[in-house]
């Protein structure tokens, strides 16, 4: 299999191609430092890609919509008894986040009960942040290894 080099004129493509190679240490590196490098790169790269436009729509439009605020979010909180669903977490209350596990049914979560169960869950702020970081790290782990 031939290894394709990206267009040298595209800085984003160059970074996407070379950065994972730069992460492979020549000497042992503390795992925390490596994870921090990956996290910083992931946030930078994610901000430059097409998905940033979708994320902007999701944050600025969908999460402020009547459908989300008055139907989906309250129903998810009620279903989960206003408690974080992460194993071992005891956070509860109305200030919890409702997390989309999948965006497949975005806007149609309430149409079928099985879609609702599959697409959203209730998490505390800390576990919600960790969920997204883990997703990012898994994405990068596939790219780096």
Distance between the termini: 17 Å
| Number of E strands | 2
Overall body shape: globular
Strand content of the residues, in percent?
Answer: 5-15%
* Main structural class: mainly alpha
State the share of residues found in helices, binned by percent.
55-70%
Largest beta-sheet characterization: 2 strands, antiparallel
Taken in chain order, the helices and strands follow as: HHHHEHEH
The side-by-side strand order for the widest beta sheet comes to 1-2
Oligomer: single chain
Please, how many helices? 6
What's the Cα radius of gyration?
19 Å
What's the pLDDT, averaged over the residues? 77
Note down, in words, how this protein is organized:
The structure is a single chain. The chain has 145 residues and is mainly alpha-helical. The protein is globular. It has 2 domains: 7-49, no CATH class; 66-144, no CATH class. The model has no long low-confidence stretch (mean pLDDT 77). Helix 1 runs antiparallel to helix 2 (31-48) and helix 2 packs across helix 6. The chain contains 6 helices and 2 strands.
């Amino acid at each position: 299999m031939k290894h394709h080099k990206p267009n040298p004129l595209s800085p984003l493509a160059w970074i996407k191609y070379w950065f994972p190679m730069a992460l492979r240490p020549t000497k042992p590196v503390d795992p925390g430092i490596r994870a921090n490098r990956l996290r910083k790169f992931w946030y930078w790269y994610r901000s430059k890609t097409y998905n940033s436009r979708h994320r902007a729509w999701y944050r600025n439009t969908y999460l402020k919509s009547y459908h989300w605020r008055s139907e989906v979010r309250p129903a998810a909180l009620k279903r989960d008894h206003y408690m974080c669903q992460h194993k071992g977490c005891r956070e509860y209350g109305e200030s919890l986040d409702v997390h989309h596990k999948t965006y497949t049914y975005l806007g149609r979560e309430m149409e079928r009960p099985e879609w609702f169960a599959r697409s959203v869950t209730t998490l505390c702020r800390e576990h919600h942040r960790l969920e997204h970081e883990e997703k990012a790290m898994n994405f990068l782990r596939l790219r780096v290894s």
